[in-house]
């Protein structure tokens, strides 16, 4: 069975990564929200330092999002959240589509698990979901850290842009890929 077809059908599917790393990609639940909120914050504050200054990372994520509010946003039917879970049933990454099926909104991998193929597998699953929902292309706003991986996966740069968070300007990149 095609890995992307399984995810697009909202069923869990194990994915073999480099060497012996095994993950499962499944739809996120509201019960995952506390872990996802923490993972997002820690990813920005630790892995983000590979491409951004401490001030930029602190402005991007001054604190972990409130888990209750995060869970409420996950219940929005316009958003599709997927999580990557390792063999120990630990969430090691997540991504989301929305508010339209052609927008890759979030992608975060645990800071101690980056560069292990987890993000690429989440992107593939999210692209499959977007395609299943009728999207013919996917758009996103990528960080400096994510941009090279997206280019490797076939995304093209639309434009560099600067956003302001907590009074600090942060560079990101609008990118797209035809499905």
UniProtKB/TrEMBL annotation:
Q: What SUPFAM superfamilies does this protein map onto?
A: Acyl-CoA N-acyltransferases (Nat)
Q: N-acetyltransferase domain: which residues?
A: 23-179
**Which Gene3D superfamilies does the entry mention?**
3.40.630.30
Q: Which residues form the signal peptide?
A: none
InterPro entries on file: Acyl_CoA_acyltransferase (IPR016181), GNAT_dom (IPR000182), N-acetyltrans/Recomb-assoc (IPR052564)
User: What domain of life?
Assistant: Bacteria
What name is this protein filed under? GNAT family N-acetyltransferase
Species this chain originates from: Jeongeupia naejangsanensis
């Amino acid at each position: 069975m095609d890995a992307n077809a399984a995810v697009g059908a909202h069923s869990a599917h194990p994915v073999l990564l480099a060497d012996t790393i095994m993950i499962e990609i499944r739809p996120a639940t509201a019960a995952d929200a506390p872990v996802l909120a923490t993972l997002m914050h820690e990813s920005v504050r630790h892995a983000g330092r590979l491409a951004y200054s401490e001030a930029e990372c602190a402005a991007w994520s001054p604190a972990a999002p409130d888990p209750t509010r995060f869970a409420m946003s996950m219940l929005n039917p316009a958003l599709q959240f997927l999580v990557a879970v390792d063999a120990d049933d630990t969430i090691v990454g997540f991504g989301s589509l929305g508010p339209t099926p052609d927008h890759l909104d979030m992608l975060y991998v645990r800071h101690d698990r980056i560069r292990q193929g987890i993000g690429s597998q989440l992107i593939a699953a999210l692209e499959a979901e977007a395609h299943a929902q009728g999207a013919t292309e996917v758009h996103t706003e990528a960080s400096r850290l994510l941009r090279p991986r997206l280019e490797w996966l076939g995304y093209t740069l639309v434009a560099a842009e600067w956003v302001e968070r907590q009074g600090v300007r942060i560079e990101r990149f609008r990118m797209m890929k035809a499905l």
